[in-house]
Amino acid sequence: MLIRGAAITATGSATDAWEPADVRISAGRVREVARTLDILPGESVLEARGGALLPALHDHHIHLFALAAAMESVDCGPPNVNSPEALAAAIQRTSADWVRGVGYHESVAGELDRHALDRLAPGRRVRIQHRTGAAWILSSSALTSLGIDADARDLPDGVERGRGGQPTGRLFRLDDWLRQRLPPRERPSLEAAGRVLARGGVASVTDATPTNDASTMQALERARVAGELRQQVVLMGGPTLPFRTTGPFVRGAVKIILDERALPAPEALAERIEHAHRQRRAVAIHCVTRTELVLALSALESAGAEPTDRLEHASITPPELAEWIGRLGVCVVTQPGFILERGDQYLRDVPVGEQDWLYRCGGLDRAAIPVGAGTDAPYSSPDPWRAIRAAVDRRTAKGRRLGAAEAMTPERALALFTTPHQSPGGRPRRVAIGEPADLMLLDQPWARAREHLERECVAATLAGGAALWSRGPEPPEPA
């Protein structure tokens, strides 16, 4: 392919001067860059018309199969569902034997349990996921169908019990356990999820699901063969995840979930980190509270932190903990999109003294702490441009500023998604000879796109030189 009439920067940084260029792609890489290039026989042409040509985006933290499942599920939370009546109506609109809901927050109908669901959907088998992904709430009919009752003796600790040992319907961090007891169901198709990602300029992702294993990799391979998913995927997972360093699906960090409800001993966490390092793998530690972050940093310090180790979310990072992160030299993968989507709730629920430290971006960047970003879809929108925009303006859905000192320039916010998958917060990838042809073409110059930062400006997304998505007429047939 020849991309003709694009605008590129020499270093890949959107802060540098933009120059007109033609870009030739073959065998999955950029082969030539010049002011003008002749069309070769058999070469298709993509007319850029002065649009910015950038490295395609990499979502550093996403959950692919959960996103695909969420796209087939009932939306049970803000902004579309905001009251008990709206929640009941959303459940009743589906005739599915098992109702699967996602995105619930207490602002809709308070603390859900089995009895609340029974009132909202009498007799229905319902399971609803909290928007954090940490809990499922099941109705009484659903619990009965799965044999989860007061007499059951083999229930794991994550099954919450109330008076008399009766399950409340709330299950914490038990996705795999629950999945094994539900009626058999094929994994959802990734086609719609892949299309949504490509539409936003995303050519590769890091799947941060802690339970990824060999079966996940096999399911991704089947999706690839079926043409459902064409993005490259880096898979986090446990210690047994198959070793892959090349190809469309490669092994990433060992994912470690910290949950303040049941935190491990610091020594045990340090041993898990050391074990991962002995495997020559980084760790990616999920920490959303101050306590979880302190534990993560303490264990990393004890085990010996590596530059490729990651802190996922680091949702509340006060200055003293940011300094600690800087001393350890690890990176932070944050989700500024939550400022937009959940910021108004944070302003009500998070203590005033901690609000400025939520999902930090600019402050960490200025302190030379490597910062990358992900969407955490489906727990936030899969549109990376919403996250980029939130990193710039730090505005909630109602337009209120949250952590204004954490604002970034559009160029630095874009770079949150253009650094290499193995180095979030490292040097942004470039449009340069020899580099992989994972590219994103905008329909306008960057000088204009930076003013609004919306995915509608993406005209085409390429992965390895192949078009994942393009707007308007298809490129001409080879000459």
Topology (elements, then pairings):
Elements: E1 2-9, E2 18-26, E3 29-34, E4 45-47, E5 53-55, E6 57-62, H1 64-71, E7 74-75, H2 84-92, E8 98-104, H3 106-109, H4 114-120, E9 125-130, E10 135-138, H5 140-145, E11 159-161, E12 167-172, H6 175-181, H7 191-199, E13 202-207, H8 214-225, E14 232-237, E15 249-257, H9 266-278, E16 283-287, H10 290-303, E17 310-313, H11 319-328, E18 331-334, H12 337-349, H13 352-355, H14 362-366, E19 371-373, H15 384-393, H16 410-415, E20 439-442, H17 446-449, E21 458-463, E22 466-470
Parallel strand pairs: 1-4, 6-13, 7-8, 8-9, 13-14, 14-15, 15-16, 16-17, 17-18, 18-19
Antiparallel strand pairs: 1-2, 2-3, 5-20, 9-10, 10-12, 11-12, 20-21, 21-22
Helix pairs in contact: 9-10, 10-11, 12-15
Task: Describe the structure in your own words.
The protein has about 475 residues and is an alpha/beta fold. It folds into 3 domains: about 110 residues, Urease, subunit C, domain 1 (Roll), CATH 2.30.40.10; about 250 residues, TIM Barrel, CATH 3.20.20; about 110 residues, Diaminopimelate Epimerase, Chain A, domain 1 (Roll). About 30% of the residues lie in helices and about 25% in strands. It has 17 helices and 22 strands. The strands form 4 sheets. The protein has an 8-stranded parallel sheet. Strands 7-8-9-10-12-11 form a 6-stranded mixed sheet. Strands 3-2-1-4 form a 4-stranded mixed sheet, with no helix packed on it. The radius of gyration is 23 Å and the shape is globular. The chain starts with a strand and ends in a 9-residue tail after the last strand. The C terminus is likely disordered.
